[in-house]
Amino acid sequence: MSVSCVIPARMGSSRFPGKPLAKINGTEMIIHTLNRAHLAGCFDSIHCATDSEVIASLVRSHGYDAVMTGVHATGSDRVMEASEKLGLDLVLNLQGDEPLVDLDLLRNVSNAIQMEPSSWVTAASPLDPNDAYNRNIVKILVEGDYARDFQREVPLDKVMLWNCHRGIYAYGKEARDEFSHLPLGEEEKKRSIEPLRIMNLRPIRVVFSEKASVSVDVPADILVVEQMI
Predict the structure, then answer these.
(1) Please, which residues bridge with residue 27 across strands?
(2) CATH architecture of the domain formed by 3-216
(3) How far apart are the C-alpha atoms of 95 and 148, rounded to whole Å?
(4) Is the pLDDT of residue 170 over 70?
(5) CA 56 from centroid of its chain's CA atoms
(6) How would you class 70 by CB atoms within 10 Å of its CB: exposed for 0-12, middle for 13-18, buried for 19 or more?
(7) Rounded to whole angstroms, how far apart are CA atoms 114 and 182?
(8) Among the residues of 52-150, which ranges form H helices?
(9) Which DSSP symbol is given to 225?
(10) Residue 40 pLDDT > 90, yes or no?
(11) Is the pTM value of this prediction over 0.85?
């Protein structure tokens, strides 16, 4: 089965307004992320889902497809609107702030959703204990390759039980339709973690990467990424 990659991008990030257009070594972050998806070589098609004409114009000028969407509460909701418009089935949702995403991780998540098309699939990597109270980094509790909980802060004496959640999801049409028709739950709103909406309703398979996450959450992270490049 083919898998498409849809990357949600919006200008209104509360922690980093205009983040998709932030330049990393002279190139906008959303373009870096689209290029990583292309380099993975595992997608039937690649699209950017956005509510910004500025982002859409930039994406198209670099040869990628852009799909205009409405305003949404989460990236998954935005990806789901775009996927419906495009008539897609299996979709990998790659957050636009992952300009150095592990290519093997993208391939492994793509393989996992093909093996379990009725599940959600997400990703994790080792958690730095120093990030136990860093609310910019979502933590995921995994048991038997499936997610059991998501938090933004975890106790130091329990930190070794948790992993760093990566900004990647994959799902089929049935799972997306279910998610789209569910109201935002109290825990999802409180923690601002979207898979909590379907926790315990549908399995959330977790794919691991030993490579640390290098997402851009705040402007200071740009320098870190530039140094790594």
Answers:
(1) 24
(2) Alpha-Beta Complex (3.90)
(3) 22
(4) yes
(5) 19
(6) exposed
(7) 24
(8) 53-61, 75-86, 103-115
(9) H
(10) yes
(11) yes
Please state, as a whole number, how many other Cβ atoms lie within 10 Å of the Cβ of residue 20: 26
16 close to 22: Cβ distance less than 8 angstroms: yes
Looking up tokens 């257009």 gives 21
- Give the type of residue at 193: I
Q: Is 106 helix (H, G, I), strand (E, B) or coil?
A: helix
| pLDDT score, position 46 | 98
Q: How far is CA 38 from CA 6, 12, 43, 225, 226, in A?
A: 11, 26, 8, 19, 20
Q: Identify which of 85, 43, 49, 81 has the alpha carbon closest to the alpha carbon of residue 66.
A: 49
Give the mean model confidence (pLDDT) for residues 155-160.
95
Provide the CA 149 distance to its chain's centre, in angstroms.
17
12 CB-near residues (< 8 Å, 6+ apart) = none
Whole-angstrom distance, CA of residue 141 vs CA of residue 92: 21
Contact indicator for 191, 149 with CB cutoff of 8 Å: no
Structure token digits, residue 103:
């290519």
Instruction: Give me the pLDDT at residue 14, please.
Output: 63
* CA 144 from centroid of its chain's CA atoms: 22
AA letter at 130: N
Would you state the structure tokens that stand for residue 91, as one six-digit string?
A: 């979709």
Tokens of 31: 């373009």
CA distance 178 to 167: 20
Instruction: Identify the H or E element spanning 163.
Output: strand 162-171
* Structure tokens, 192: 């601002």
